[in-house]
Amino acid sequence: MVGKNCFAIASDRRLGVQLQTIATDFQRIFRIHDKLFIALSGLATDAQTLNQRLVFRHKLYQLREERDMKPETFASLVSALLYEKRFGPYFCQPVIAGLGDDDKPFICTMDCIGAKELAKDFVVSGTASESLYGACESMFKPDMEPEELFETISQALLSSVNRGLFKWVGPKHCYLPQIVDCLSGWGGHVYVVTPTEVKERLLKGRMD
Hints:
- The protein has helices spanning 44-65, 71-84, 129-139, 146-161, and strands at residues 7-12, 15-17, 20-23, 29-33, 36-42, 92-99, 105-110, 116-119, 166-169, 174-177, 188-193, 198-203.
- By secondary structure, it is an alpha+beta fold.
- It has a single domain, classed as Glutamine Phosphoribosylpyrophosphate, subunit 1, domain 1.
- The two termini are 27 Å apart.
């Protein structure tokens, strides 16, 4: 999610095989350099392999160019890397976020064969993407400061991945389940990145 000369990137912490939970502290967000991050939803082994290949490519770029890669350049690299494997793809949906020239935020996501989707406000991916779209759409405001951006992205993430939310409907005072997503959750992991610092925070969510 984009703010005023800053961005935030967040994920849940659950690693599971369908309905079975394997771990509750899984890392999905990876730092490429201080102003560029990538989050990889999908198959855990493919996410780790893809991250290693991207770090390797970025280090080669640093050695040759003697500078860090711009977010737009990195997005093209990720897209090309995924498209190379289009007949046997990595089962990952990347979310890329970074600060480019003049500390202008850049965000994009892509599918597992590298088709880019650019946005100026927010991007989402993963099993809870449908509820994330609704939460982000209702909570996002342009030009948020870092602290407000952190609050907004945290609330959007937690409200999207919490299971069994109930809402009062109709004159009969009955409660109906609204969002049911048992494939994500167990808290959150948030990075808020400004031109001068990177803040990392862990969120506590429902642990069931």
